[in-house]
Amino acid sequence: MSLLDVDGLVKRFGGLLAIDDLSLSVDEGELVGVMGPNGAGKSTFFNCVSGVVQPDGGTVRFDGADVTGVDTATLARDGLVRTFQHTRQLDTMTVRENVRLAAPGQPGEQPVSALLRTSTMQETEAEVAERADELIELFELTRLADEYASSLSGGQRKLLELARVLMLEPDLLLLDEPFAGVNPTLTNEIADHIRGLNDDGMTLVVIEHELETLTELVDRLVVLQQGSLLVEGEPEVVLNDERVIDAYLGS
Ligand code: ADP
Ligand code: MG
């Protein structure tokens, strides 16, 4: 059975059809890449799946349950977590505070943690602190743990964002352009972390705008164009597909 099953998804913004009858499934344990030119509907797809916007049609099933239109906080509690194209750390907090406050049940100003305050997943402060420090270590941010997030580079912010979402212990993690604006060294590092999470059993869907960045990383590539599925399949096959080449040249 698929972990994520999207069927006939439609999302309009006024007269614009951002998602046009999109059907897509992701199996448990898969690592899927979503590509497409700017404006293809990649982020909107994540927004519909993760409860950020309400779809106008279609259904989203997660782990067997219909979760169409369910809010972000509830989905996060159920194990479906996404990151945003533009990172949302609080610049007025340190790296360590940002990671700790991402945990469910922690007091804080972030929308997810605020809404999860009544969660049954309450952890003790010491447990949260320990897990936060482990993640900070994993992402090689220990040296920067007491610096304000505002002092981080673009790539370091992406690593911090990963550390934050992992505090939520997702089953399905949706990453929106985790490599955007990141230098080649950090890009490789982030790709290694994504691979490692997948090796440990996490299901991931990764959006990337550039051709080829995902080829080495993912099991399957999905290409969106104008809100619809253009091509999907093995990365090498998809990248050499005429329709994909045309879509990119035409954009
Ligand atoms: P991508 O992530 O593939 O670049 P998006 O999903 O961000 O594309 O956008 C798809 C289309 O929907 C674009 O034309 C974009 O301008 C439009 N769009 C996305 N979000 C909104 C919104 N909140 N309000 C109005 N239009 C939007
Ligand atoms: Mg986008």
Automatic annotation (TrEMBL):
GO terms for molecular function: ATP binding. InterPro entries: AAA+_ATPase, ABC_AA/LPS_Transport, ABC_transporter-like_ATP-bd, ABC_transporter-like_CS, BCA_ABC_TP_C, P-loop_NTPase. One of its GO terms (biological process) is amino acid transport. It holds the Pfam family ABC_tran. SUPFAM superfamilies: P-loop containing nucleoside triphosphate hydrolases. Transmembrane segments: none annotated. Keywords: Amino-acid transport, ATP-binding, Nucleotide-binding, Transport. It comes from the Archaea. Residues 4-251 form the ABC transporter domain. SMART domains: AAA (SM00382). Probable component of a branched-chain amino-acid transport system. Belongs to the ABC transporter superfamily. This is Probable branched-chain amino acid transport ATP-binding protein LivG. The lineage of its organism: Archaea, Methanobacteriati, Methanobacteriota, Stenosarchaea group, Halobacteria.
